[in-house]
Amino acid sequence: MRVEHTFIAWEDRMNLEIVxxxxxxxxxxxxxxxxxxxxxxxxxxQKLQVRIALAQDGDAFNCHxxxxxxxxxxxxxxxxADLIKxxxxxxxxxxxxxxxxLHKAEADRKPAQSIRANTPEVPNPQA
Length: 127
Fold this sequence. Notes:
Blueprint: E1 4-10, E2 15-21, H1 27-44, E3 49-57, E4 60-69, E5 72-80, H2 83-108
Parallel strand pairs: 2-3
Antiparallel strand pairs: 1-2, 3-4, 4-5
Helix pairs in contact: 1-2
């Protein structure tokens, strides 16, 4: 039998949906996830709509995180011995994706050219 627990936080800042299949997410886990996602929200500068799916697969726990922001889709999966480790792994992967997305514009810029490279050579009048 599959039991599904859903928690939705409609706060001033972010819309967070935590879905647990065969597991019940604790208040401590929810708070930890909210704190980490608040950092992403600050870095991206916009309100996030996040979906976190938690599940138990045998002895391991799985966490899947997904949200769209800054013209990108951020998706990550984490697996661990407990829910907190699984969530931390997924959010660490999201953190790397957010960092890469924010610095992508810098990497795509053309390198600056030297002003001296484009100036014509002036003949020396004393020579």
